[in-house]
Design goal:
The complex is a heterotrimer of chains A (340), B (595) and C (294). Chain A is mostly helical and 340 residues long. Chain A contains 13 helices and no strands. In chain A, helix 2 packs antiparallel against helix 13 and helix 6 packs antiparallel against helix 11. The longest helix of chain A has 39 residues. Chain A starts with a helix and ends with a helix. By secondary structure, chain B is of the alpha/beta class. In chain B, the strands form 4 sheets. Chain B has an 8-stranded mixed β-sheet, sandwiched between helices. In chain B, strands 18-19-20-15-21-22 form a 6-stranded mixed β-sheet, with helices on both faces. In chain B, helix 18 packs parallel to helix 19. The chains are: A mainly alpha (340), B alpha/beta (595), C mainly alpha (294). Chains in contact: A-B, A-C, B-C. At the A-B interface, helix 1, helix 10 and helix 11 of A face helix 2, helix 3 and helix 7 of B.
Chain lengths: 340, 595, 294
């Protein structure tokens, strides 16, 4: 240990002394960073639109077959291709499609014939409600659990926490969810409804009982993920030399934890929280399908099963964009942290 | 009454191995004790234990630390916290990591003091002035990362001093600083302690630093105090064989002296010993040294040493005084320089760091390149080997043009010019054995494989005094000094004309540094030319024939080592020399040979 | 004159020789347990189909029939033997997960190492591609393609592998970059060793520790991903048997026949928990012995 330290000192000793950072400079960096991210974002979203388009509409014969089924006649296929503009050149199709997407016109559902945007608005609202409530629960809980585990490191609380989180992290959401349903919904206690059907037109919070189980699973998964990061960054900070110096100075434990450690430990957890929000969106597909919750995740599964092409395109674009935004947010927050 | 009294302080790891063994000493108010030891000696653990603190995994298992009449180790948690606030100040090794990046300087300065922020502020401002920092509100509102390294260290010192403690513990506070900053900080430490009547323990690996700041000096090794006494007793008339050996391995800026390394390697922290901890490496050891742990006995010179043969050692020291070495005069006149550099400019991200560097390396010569941190010396060495991307200038090797970029250089050039890196822990591939590491270039340059390669590798390793039985070890199993020698052996295996050594000794303990310097000197005797980059004037004096002094990317002075270091012409060199500390040694002319 | 040198002594090497990575990692009880769980599940999944008493697709009884009539645990939602379906339900998952992991890890490692080694414009381009791929959640990408191309098993393997690749590439680039700056790699460049030598002999061996941890983690994610896709109906197609599929087929009968959901769910969980135990245990051992925190 000691020899490693001398080497490190020696390396530090020859590295030029860091010049004091300047505030104005930092602000400029931040502005530049956001502009850069914004441009990157536009490019990436465009890439995503190409991928979605290529994967769906760019395979002509197939699309019609998929929509109409194997028994379709050539006439029917030609008719459909004409209606959907599938007989036009690909590039034209793409620009038309992109223009429509950008103006919010996602086309009509092939199953019900209603506009996609109309069908999805309630679903989006339901999903967003679920995600927001889950995040409100996850953030403070993760902080608390991670902090406790770090403070009681290697003691009973920490060990049992690590064991639990290891198991929960590894278990697929649908397995966790099925077990929760078995315990509280059907087999053991039967206190909660096993499916979370929200009648159309109702706000999700009018049916709190329906929300408990999906929220519980989302929160459990989110807390185990995020609190581990909180724990690690807290342990890093608690072992840092400035916390050691604070102890040596004779400060109280409370002051050390909340004034010295917390601000430094929180910083790396904030980008992690947005990454988690992004993964919650992807994970919602499984959770919503499992509980039959009427959000965009279950809508996607239904749309794929019903070969409802415009719905699939719209939902995937939407999810990818949301996922992407949270990822970028995490990235920007992380870079800001580093520059500090 | 003594201000500080430490008795029987013992620290053990969780597995029971003792890393600080029965350390005792006493200090009066205003006295500074230098605590010196090589890495793994337990000196930093002692420093923390003086505050009743042990790192994770270690525990204070015995002893007393009495400061101002209070035994810190006997206190409960809350009382200990109060005692730390009132009685003891601590100055950490690296203020860049020890100051909280998220808190203002002002808050960090006041929070450790008794009483509220308002009443303490006048005192804080006074101390900030005393350490040479601004004391206005704007400064107090800054964050640590907005200060330079020297300023951060002053803030840390002010933080420890301002509460007016009975004892201040300095844990290697000047290790990361340049010599000029170090000199000012050390001067300040002495002044603060005597002005405020505080006792201080100053931990360092550097004998010269300890000699400059300490009234008393204590030498630690393997967790034990091996010798203690006043500065003159320990540094001028050392009694313990380890202190003697340590002193002999220190290079000097005043004379070109041979350095005497200590054989063997220092024990790992927590190693167990039957008898004397130094017996295995000691020239005077006899059987009884290995039977029982010796006690600290009063040495004939006045201090105390943990050695049963103090008298014998004192009488049989053949001679403490070393004759200056002569410069090697093997340079063949009239031959082209091995390396010639003209108008070298280099930049990093559009910031120019090197300006018009020019120098020559004659055959068989060692050119020392000296500079403080930020002088551009490492960039320059990277330029020589071709690793730096943006550089302009003209280089010649043996009179033939030398392309600047690595990819333009021929295989022959790559073979003739070898580079040894600063960090011995990264120089060798951790997944290859020592022998393989040395054989890789043999295969690459000469196509040697199998037996032929092994024979050549053995030859190269033996040249650097690495026994062949270590050949199948991995780098992790070797000490820092051994790794550095393997790295040199790997370079030698290429049969180079020019060896570029980039701070090769700065990561090593002084006794190990001596062995590497002596090895390089012997290679030079064999006719190898060298460029030796360092921040340490004393090392240059030991090994260099000519010296180039760099400051802020420019050559400020160059010439024969003897003349530049004896009579520097440029103000920068003069300042550097004046700030470089020197261990006082008995003068060659006046000291008598004892016995 | 110089003081007589103390007699030369053999240098002592006190440290225990560092064992190779595999042996070191297996000293931890956690990694051993994880590895045993993984291997058990793999063997179970491979041998299972041969032990099945009935055909997993044959209708033997009424839907959700109780145990009896040679059906040890009863029948599932379509009246097929639950035991047989469980025994044959892991084979596809196992080979697909292993193939996807191998493909994804190999691809990701190659991209990561090449990016770290080449640096400059190559690095930037590769990492931009990786960034774009990362903004596309695996499961949604898989659903998108499967909805169009149909759930072929090899397509699933490739999709999951592509899902693993960008993360893997980032991790490997992150571990390789500090190695590229290490002195032994710089030395190899100064003597002009070939890029292949540097990548294979100097860089790759230094990143085996994170590689090992990542393989465990990615295997876990492959299983989670493939099982979740099956559960959603986009993976292995009925009537073939698959654990993920069984959970969704039988979830409506949870109250009557809980074991038809419970056992396949636990099988998947044991598989993934084994992978996670191994990965985290290995990370911990490596962190302890190599000084990097995990």
């Amino acid at each position: 240990m000691a020899t490693e330290m001398t080497t490190k000192q020696a390396i530090d000793a020859v590295e030029p002394v860091k010049a004091p950072s300047r505030r104005r400079n930092r602000r400029a960096t931040i502005a530049w960073l956001i502009v850069q991210r914004g441009l990157m974002g536009v490019v990436t979203l465009w890439c995503i639109s190409v991928i979605v388009f290529v994967a769906t509409q760019a395979m002509p014969g197939d699309v019609a077959h998929i929509i109409l089924g194997a028994g379709a006649t050539a006439d029917q296929i030609a008719q459909l291709n004409k209606n959907m503009g599938l007989d036009e050149p690909l590039l034209t199709q793409y620009w038309d499609w992109l223009g429509n997407v950008l103006t919010g016109n996602m086309g009509n559902s092939l199953v019900s014939g209603q506009p996609v945007s109309e069908l999805l608005s309630e679903r989006i609202f339901n999903s967003a409600t679920l995600t927001v409530i889950a995040m409100i629960l996850i953030l403070p809980l993760s902080l608390l659990v991670g902090l406790l585990a770090a403070v009681f490191r290697d003691r009973f609380f920490d060990r049992s926490y690590l064991g639990t989180s290891l198991v929960v992290t590894a278990t697929p959401d649908f397995v966790l969810g099925s077990l929760v349903i078995a315990v509280f919904g059907t087999v053991v206690f039967k206190v909660l409804p096993p499916v979370s059907l929200i009648p159309p037109g109702d706000a999700p919070w009018q049916h709190p009982k329906q929300l408990i189980m999906p929220l519980a699973v989302m929160t459990l998964v989110g807390v185990t993920y995020l609190s581990r990061l909180v724990r690690v960054s807290f342990i890093d900070v608690l072992e840092s030399e400035y916390v050691q110096l604070a102890t040596i100075k004779g400060l109280s434990t409370r002051r050390i934890l909340f004034r010295h450690a917390l601000p430094n430990a929180l910083a790396p957890s904030i980008p992690a929280a947005s990454i988690m929000a992004a993964y919650t969106i992807a994970g919602s597909v499984v959770i919503e399908y499992l509980f039959g919750y009427p959000g965009i995740g279950s809508a996607l599964v239904d749309a794929v099963a019903g070969h409802d092409l415009p719905m699939v395109q719209a939902i995937i674009m939407l999810m990818a964009a949301a996922f992407f935004c949270f990822n970028q947010l995490a990235d920007v927050l992380g870079t800001l942290n580093k520059s500090r | 009454m003594n201000a500080v009294e430490v008795t029987g302080l013992t620290v053990a790891l969780d597995d029971g191995s003792v890393i600080v063994d029965d350390v005792s000493f006493a200090l009066e108010s205003g006295q500074v004790m230098g605590l010196v030891g090589e890495s793994g000696s337990g000196k930093s653990t002692v420093a923390l234990a003086l505050l009743g603190f042990a790192k994770r995994g270690a525990n204070i298992v015995g002893g007393k630390v009495v400061v101002g009449g209070v035994d810190l180790l006997a206190l409960g948690r809350n009382e200990l916290r109060e005692a730390r606030k009132k009685l003891i100040g601590f100055v950490p090794q690296d203020p860049a990591t020890a100051l909280n990046p998220a808190m203002r300087i002002g808050t960090q300065l006041t929070e450790g003091m008794l009483g509220g922020r308002k009443e303490n502020l006048p005192r804080i401002r006074e101390v900030l002035k005393a350490v040479g920092l601004p004391s206005d509100d704007a400064f107090l509102r800054r964050h640590p990362q907005e200060l330079s390294g020297g300023q951060q260290q002053r803030v840390a010192i002010a933080m420890a001093v301002s509460k007016g403690p009975k004892l201040i513990v300095f844990d290697e506070p000047t290790t990361g600083l340049d010599v000029s900053t170090q000199a000012r900080v050390l001067e300040m430490v002495g002044r603060l302690c005597s002005d405020n009547g505080m006792a201080a323990v100053f931990v360092s690996h550097d004998l010269a630093v300890v000699g400059a700041v300490g009234d008393l000096v204590t030498v630690m090794y393997a967790g034990q105090v091996l010798e203690t006494g006043t500065r003159d007793e320990v540094l001028l008339t050392a009694a313990h064989p380890y202190s003697i050996a340590l002193l002999e391995s220190v290079p000097s800026t005043r004379q070109r002296l041979p350095l005497v390394p200590i054989p063997g390697r220092s024990p790992a922290a927590g190693a167990k010993f039957e008898g004397c901890v130094f017996a295995d490496r000691c020239a005077y050891a006899e059987d009884r040294c290995r039977e029982a742990v010796p006690a600290l006995v009063t040495a004939p010179t006045g201090g105390a040493a943990r050695c049963v043969r103090v008298e014998h050692v004192r009488q049989n020291q053949t001679c403490q005084v070393k004759e200056p070495l002569r410069r090697i005069e093997s340079r063949e006149e009239g031959r082209a320089s091995v390396l010639s550099v003209r108008n070298l400019n280099a930049s990093y991200d559009r910031t120019q760091v090197l300006f018009d560097l020019s120098f020559d390396v004659a055959p068989g010569e060692c050119v020392g390149i000296v500079g403080e941190s930020g002088s551009g010396k490492t960039t320059m060495s990277r330029c020589l080997i071709g690793l730096h991307e943006s550089q302009t200038g003209v280089m010649e090797m043996d009179g033939k043009p030398l392309p600047l970029r690595l990819r333009d250089r021929s295989k022959a050039i790559k073979q003739q010019m070898q580079y040894v890196f600063q960090n011995p822990y990264g120089s060798l591939n951790p997944r290859e054995t020592v022998a393989t590491s040395v054989m890789v270039p043999l295969k690459h340059f000469y196509g040697d494989r199998g037996k032929a390669a092994r024979a050549k590798a053995q030859e190269a390793l033996e040249r650097v005094e690495i026994p062949w039985r270590l050949a199948d070890r991995y780098p992790a199993e070797l000490s820092g000094g051994q790794r550095q020698r393997v790295a040199i052996a790997r370079a030698l295996a290429c049969d180079p004309k020019l060896l570029i050594c980039d701070e090769v000794t700065s990561g090593l303990d002084v006794s190990v540094q001596a062995s590497v310097v002596e090895l390089l000197r012997s290679l030079q005797n064999d006719g190898l030319s060298m460029v030796f980059i360092t921040h340490d004037l004393a090392v240059v004096r030991s090994i260099g024939d000519r010296v180039v002094v760099l400051s802020q990317g420019r050559v400020v002075e160059s010439g024969e080592v003897e003349s530049v270091l004896s009579a520097p012409e440029h103000a920068y060199t003069r300042g550097l020399l004046a700030d470089t500390l020197e261990v006082d040694r008995p003068d060659a002319e006046t000291s008598e040979v004892p016995g | 004159m110089i003081r007589t040198r103390p007699r030369e002594q053999g240098e002592q090497e006190v440290q225990a020789p560092p064992k190779n990575l595999t042996r070191r990692v297996l000293t931890s009880r956690q990694t051993r347990l994880g590895l045993i769980m993984l291997l058990t599940m793999i063997v179970f999944a491979i041998v299972g189909p041969f032990l099945a008493p009935h055909s997993p697709t044959a209708v033997m009884a009424k839907p959700y029939a109780p145990p009896g009539d040679g059906l040890l645990l009863g029948a599932d939602s379509l009246g097929r033997d639950i035991v047989s379906r469980i025994l044959s339900g892991g084979a596809n998952l196992t080979w697909m997960a292993i193939a996807a992991t191998a493909l994804g890890v190999a691809l990701g490692t190659t991209i990561g190492l090449v990016a770290a080694f080449a640096g400059g414009i190559v690095d930037m381009l590769l990492m931009r591609v990786v960034d774009v791929l990362l903004t596309f959640p695996t499961i949604i990408m898989a659903i998108l393609f499967i909805s169009m191309v149909g759930p072929s098993r090899w397509i699933l393997v490739v999709l999951v592998a592509i899902g693993l690749t960008p993360g893997m590439a980032r991790v490997m680039r992150g571990s390789a970059r500090p190695v590229m700056r290490r002195e032994h790699v710089m030395w190899a460049r100064t003597v002009g060793l070939s890029s292949r030598h540097i990548l294979m002999r100097e860089v790759l061996p230094s990143v085996t520790s994170p590689l090992m941890v990542e393989i465990g983690l990615r295997l876990m994610w492959s299983v989670v991903g493939l099982a979740s896709l099956s559960f959603l109906g986009f993976g292995v197609q009925p009537p073939a048997s698959d654990w993920g599929l069984m959970v969704s087929e039988n979830k409506d009968g949870l109250a009557i026949q809980p074991l038809a959901v419970f056992i396949p769910a636990v099988c998947v969980a044991l598989f993934t928990i084994g992978g996670n135990l191994f990965a985290e245990g290995a990370a911990r051992v490596i962190g302890r012995t190599e000084g990097t925190r995990s």
